[in-house]
Write a structure and sequence with these properties.
The protein is α+β, with helices and mostly antiparallel strands. The strands form 8 sheets. The protein has a 5-stranded antiparallel beta sheet with strand order 4-3-2-1-5, with helices on one face. Strands 8-15-14-11-10 form a 5-stranded mixed beta sheet. Helices cover 39% and strands 21% of the residues. The protein has 23 helices and 25 strands. β1 (51-56) and β2 form a beta hairpin. Residues 1-38 have low confidence and may be disordered.
């Protein structure tokens, strides 16, 4: 190419380029500048009016110096009226005055687009090189164009600093470059190709996510396909999916690395970087449902059973294991047995029988308890699964059992003609104390299943079932006796949520209905059943303490009572019940007996729900082995059982947290769906943080929530509330006080 080539000329042929290169012997800036008449100047010699190349925002820019910016910088005009501040230390080249920056930029762009120029330049320089040499842009300009005027020198500078230039030449210092070896270029080429492939895969992945977000709800792609494992990207999709899920669960549930990975993806999708955006993305792509249960994920609550659990269940159903208590199991099928449960109960784990003894008011009660350890051997596969799950969890949308339902509602349940059970017999005096007791393996036959509502209605009837009336009398005697012994009874309303169209894991909005009502905590039937269960815990706890049996005992310290003056200032009824609840100490558990002040008992062991509480299973293992005379017991020392109880307690705690958070979620969904003019009456039961916040309980629903007061409130005051807004996944709902209206939501 000739030195007279202008910016509008073509870049030139490789033949001309090669001839020019072979005729060049100079390498450095000084020689090149001398050969060309010195038409470029050093960066440090720049003055106002010069056109300079400088680095800004990671790329080379071109502009004309407008004026000085202190001693260390320039104000540079990049084109038109736009000016920028440029630090002198970022200036890469100075092309002097009297040149047109716009034409230089246009010519340089053409040269950079033609990768063959810089590659051919490397070939010729490599051919002519006599050893390790350092070159500059002027030398490359002379080789390529046969000239080093400002226009061509800048084009060479841009080519050397382009991605392709970096492939062939290594920057050694500012404005100085070293030709790479052929081996280095080959390695960098392979690396660049791999990076280009990764970038292409990344763009394709982001485009797939965007398409999934935009797709209608019924046309979302299969999550297993969208977030598939791909060997080509080394499983990057799966890792991104896992990071996005962890991020969506909120603080404490993601690592810094997961946050960074999720934020990167959200940025590429054009979304804000936050756990809320991660959640919305997972829902929008169809990976999660609109009502995804975050609590289950946060606390790692197992929902589905593994395949080997179903296999073990089928094996048990096909071939029942030997009953180690068959020879001592007492046949009690002659007793009339009643089961009292909620209408939807499928795990019948207890039944009641009763008999009046003589004329002195003594009532003999039998509490028959399901005997799942007759089916489940300790340390078997199903035992380990139940231990991991620890409890049946009752979500508003679905019950998640501790054992597979084929067992839990089948042979384990007290529903057949002759069921194996563990029976606790107790003779109760008129004053409520236990005169005598016996614990035995048994056979029982269920006569009738009652719902709580059935029993409440029956107890009000003039022709009430005699056995129910007798059971209720025994329950009242026990209740009064425990009260005399210091038991604390707190009767607060309980919310009942009925969610249809969803599973424990969630569901889609259009399929779901949510209804809320209030359970009557003071209903006679619930008191009856509760007292019979506490009776068993009292008997088993007392037996274990007397015999020195390590059992999962439960206890509670004395409540932290306030002064009489403070107590008297709290209105009677629900406000005092709330105050008492907040004064109660946390419960304790361990393998040795301990008082339970809340129940008014010296020793207490939960024993009546072994189908749905693993701690009860532990008690059954111990008690049954002791009755058989086995020594040592399955858990012979307290320390071993303590560790087991702690592990089970941790799993139960996680399940309870998930249940509470899920109930809270669906409660918020319920209120967000109510009519705009809905109003609720609520009682102010506790002031929080002075007069700013208050705990209230909705009169017709039993729902508890904290509201912000717009003016001072009074304990016991009845407020009329309206719904403001809610974010169920974020865990908040807002109500505001308003004037009462005739319309009240149910």
């Amino acid at each position: 190419m000739s030195s007279s080539m202008s910016s509008s000329s073509s870049v030139g042929s490789l033949a001309t380029f090669a001839a020019s290169a072979r005729g060049t012997t100079t390498r450095g800036r000084a020689a090149s500048a001398s050969a060309s008449g010195g038409r470029t100047r050093a960066p440090e010699d720049a003055v106002v009016g010069d056109v300079i190349a400088y680095s800004r925002k990671g790329e080379t820019r071109l502009g004309t110096i407008d004026k000085a910016d202190g001693k260390t910088g320039w104000i540079v005009r990049e084109g038109g009226e736009q000016t920028v501040k440029v630090a002198k230390k970022t200036v890469e080249a100075n092309y002097g005055a009297g040149v047109v920056a716009r034409d230089m930029e246009a010519f340089a762009n053409k040269c950079v687009e033609d990768d063959s120029l810089i590659s051919s330049a490397w070939e010729l320089i490599h051919e002519l090189a006599s050893g390790d040499e350092i070159i500059d842009a002027l030398y490359v300009s002379d080789v390529v164009f046969g000239d080093v005027d400002a226009e061509r020198a800048y084009a060479a500078h841009r080519m050397l600093n382009s991605p392709t230039g970096g492939l062939y030449f290594k920057t050694k210092a500012k404005g100085q470059y070293e030709p790479r070896t052929a081996e280095q270029i080959e390695a960098l080429t392979r690396k660049a190709q791999a990076e280009a492939r990764v970038e292409m895969l990344e763009h394709a992945f982001v485009d797939e996510i965007k398409a999934a977000v935009a797709a209608p709800r019924g046309d979302k792609p299969d999550p297993a396909t969208l977030w598939r494992h791909d060997d080509e990207d080394n499983g990057a999709r799966v890792r991104r999916f896992e990071a996005l899920q962890a991020y969506a669960l909120g603080d404490k549930f993601y690592s810094p690395g997961e946050k960074a990975m999720a934020d990167d993806l959200l940025t590429k999708l054009g979304f804000s970087r936050s756990p809320e955006s991660a959640l919305k993305t997972l829902i929008a792509t169809g990976a999660w449902s609109a009502h995804e249960n975050l609590a289950i994920r946060r606390y790692n609550v197992p929902i589905e059973f593994p395949e080997h659990a179903h296999e073990a269940t089928q094996a048990l159903l096909a071939n029942a294991p030997p009953d180690p208590d068959a020879s001592t199991r007492l046949d009690l099928t002659h007793l009339k047995v009643y089961a009292i449960d909620d209408a939807g109960t499928v795990e019948v784990d207890d039944g009641l029988s009763v008999q009046a003894l003589g004329d002195d008011g003594v009532i003999r009660v039998w509490v028959h308890i399901a005997d799942p350890t007759r089916w489940i051997e300790r340390d078997s596969a199903l035992d380990h699964i139940a231990r991991r799950r620890a409890t049946t969890v009752y979500y508003p949308s679905e019950m998640v059992p501790m054992f597979p339902l084929a067992l839990a509602s089948g042979p384990m349940s007290l529903g057949g003609d002759k069921c194996e059970a563990m029976t606790v017999r107790a003779d109760i005096a008129r004053e409520g104390c236990v005169l005598d007791f016996e614990i035995m393996p048994s056979y029982v036959k269920l006569d009738r299943r009652w719902t709580y509502d059935d029993v409440d209605a029956e107890l009000k009837s003039a022709t009430c079932d005699a056995d129910l009336r007798l059971l209720y009398a025994a329950a009242r005697a026990r209740d009064e006796r425990r009260a005399d012994d210091g038991a604390v009874t707190i009767l607060l309303p309980e919310v009942y949520l009925d969610v249809k169209g969803a599973t424990a894991r969630g569901g889609e909005d259009e399929d779901i209905t949510v209804n809320m009502s209030m359970l009557d905590s003071e209903a006679p039937a619930r008191m009856l059943v509760s007292e019979m269960m506490v009776l068993v815990g009292d008997v088993v706890g007392g037996y274990g303490a007397r015999e020195g049996i390590p059992l999962p005992y439960r206890g509670q310290n004395e409540p932290r009572l306030m002064s009489d003056d403070e107590w008297d200032r709290i209105p009677e009824g629900i406000c005092q019940d709330i105050a008492m609840r907040m004064s109660m100490s946390s419960s304790t558990s361990g393998a040795t007996p301990r008082p339970h002040s809340g129940l008014g008992l010296q020793a207490y062991v939960q024993f009546t729900s072994p189908i749905r509480r693993y701690a009860d299973i532990l008690a059954h293992y111990q008690i049954k082995a002791h009755l058989r005379g086995e020594r040592p017991l399955p858990f012979a020392d307290a320390e071993t059982l303590e560790r087991m109880t702690e592990d089970v307690g941790a799993s139960v705690g996680a399940a309870i947290k998930s249940q509470r958070e899920t109930t809270k979620y669906w409660s918020h969904v319920y209120f967000s769906r109510q009519p705009a003019d809905a109003r609720w009456r609520a009682t102010l039961v506790k002031l929080i943080r002075g007069d700013d916040l208050a705990l209230v309980i909705f009169e017709d629903l039993g729902f508890e929530t904290v509201i912000k007061l717009d003016r001072a409130g009074v304990l016991g005051e009845t407020l009329t509330l309206r719904f403001v807004d809610a974010d169920p996944h974020a865990g908040f709902v807002n109500f505001a006080r308003c004037e009462p209206t005739p319309t009240t939501a149910a």
